[in-house]
Amino acid sequence: MRNLRFPRLLAYAVAFYAVLQLLAVTGVFNGYIMHIVNQSLIYVILVVSLNLINGISGQFSLGHMGFAAVGAYVSGTLTTIIWKLAPDNPAAIVLFIAAVIVGGAAAALVGVLIGFPSLRLKGDYLAIVTLGFGEIIRTMLNNIDYVGGPRGLLGIPKFSNFTVIFIAAFLTIVVVRNLVQSSHGRAMLSIRENELAAELVGVNSTKYKVLAFAIGAFFAGIAGALLAHLIQIAHPTQYGFMGSVLVLIMVYAGGVGSITGSVIAAFGLTFLSEGLRIVIDSLAAATGLPIGGEWRMVVYALLLIFIMLFRTEGLMGNKELKIMVIEERKA
Amino acid sequence: MMGSIFNVQQVINGLQTGSIYALIALGYTMVYGIVRLINFAHGDFFMIGAYASYGSFFLFNSLLGAKGGTLAFIVLIFSVLAGGAVAAVTNRFAYRPLRYKPKLSSLITAIGVSMFIEYFFSAFPPIGPSYKAFPEILPKMQIAIGSATISNYTLIDIGVAAVLMIGLTVLVKWTPLGKAMRAVSQDKDAAKLMGIDVERVISWTFIIGGAFAGVAGLLNGMTYPRIFPYMGIQPGLKAFIAAVLGGIGNIPGAVIGAYIMGLAETFASAYNSLLGEGIAFAILILVLLVRPRGILGEKTADKI
Fold first, then answer.
1. Cβ atoms within 10 A of the Cβ of B116, count?
2. What is the CATH number of domain A8-20+34-324?
3. Of the four, A25, B32, B128, B183, which is 20 to 30 A from A57 by CA?
4. Would the pLDDT of A277 be above 90?
5. How is chain A split into domains, by residue range?
């Protein structure tokens, strides 16, 4: 008989889920903290998927939130229409999951479109093109009246909850992890290290670059869809350049190429950001000085600069915790 | 319809926008030519130039009572100093430590610097995130030329940009510093072996680029009298695209690219505002797909 061991990552995930759910049910974590947990999990999806494009395949992308916007708007429009036609539909959750997947697929399609310029462009040029694509998507959303234009897409039904987001984040991690440790992932890593050398040993760099963009965009679309159904609105400003930069900061803070690092950074920085908000608000209240929320972004900017100057490789470098490594089966 | 779009008035407006883009684009292209870095914070040097001229206007006008041409000259000097100083400091503390690290770490640092400047300005109470009305530094006049009426500000924008561009050409072509700049942009190591202080040349490149951006900030503030901490993002991005269009690293290319951008944008906005917003990126994607090295850029081969 084959030696089937319970996969370690799944075991940890189930334990983590159980602990958080217990804390939520018993009221130790109130709704506000659980909201931040949900946001952190959505950031986990965004950061891990951007890490696949930037860190693992080495294709510098600055438009990740553009993909998320596609997912958010496509799925949000779908569920809003369905919800209007058939309110309190018993199959609502199934329709919601279908809409999220359609949103992800639409984002993946856009990802393939953006993947193609990456065949000809490298480094900073690619960064600018992806930035441009992100801005084009944002400008378009701002001008399409059907999805609310500058008002944003309002009245999206609230379908996202902790369980759904947790499962999505877990699946993202598993898919990206398994991909990286497969021959496809090794091919992507080889393109990052030296594209010419990779091609010389027979790696089809075209295929893997587009694949990385497609998969990364798919999960970003899922994250956008989940976010839209969590906060019940999709707004063009959420998906601008700054949003993409925040995800990028998390990738670099965690460590380029490290999935463990991405997960830690997504949680750490989302909570740090909320913590800073509280600190700044109480400072403003205590001193009576007009200390605005922009200081939070000043701290973020300095964090990014200091990471680059003093720890370019990020928290984890390109190392993984042991639970992220696929176990070898004993025959 | 087409007649109303392509008239003298629009051409002049396009040249005016193009002049401001050209001053910003020169900074991008010079820095890229010498250190191969897209200086994301360059648009913010432009913003700082606008704020420096705003501040110095009130300082010298209200407190010291300077007026007219003298005042305009003082404000110009302050915009130059502010742009140049911020560029020098940014280069020294954010980019220089990363000079021999992978290129992408400098790029990300540049994004960080840009974010820091923008948010610091909007968080800092005396400046704040809100719009400020830019004062009228010189009396505004309308001049009729044929069927078009243009403001003297338009002539100032185009004229100042032209003078500075001629000055830069002279500097790069005929001075020792210019010669050193060209040498460093060709081969940093060889330049070092020839006794050129490479870091000094890089510093001066940043200072000149920053000063140009500062002047552009002043001209932009005079022409569109509204300033705010995020005002550098859009012009910065468009000027960068202009530099890519002309061939990044190439000084005449940046100027040509900037004027093409200015004209294209003016015509496109006259036709449709959405098109005006998006045309810059459309040009960028087209250039990168069809001719990534830009109009005047030289073809480079990957070294194995």
1. 23
2. 1.10.3470
3. B32
4. no
5. 8-20+34-324
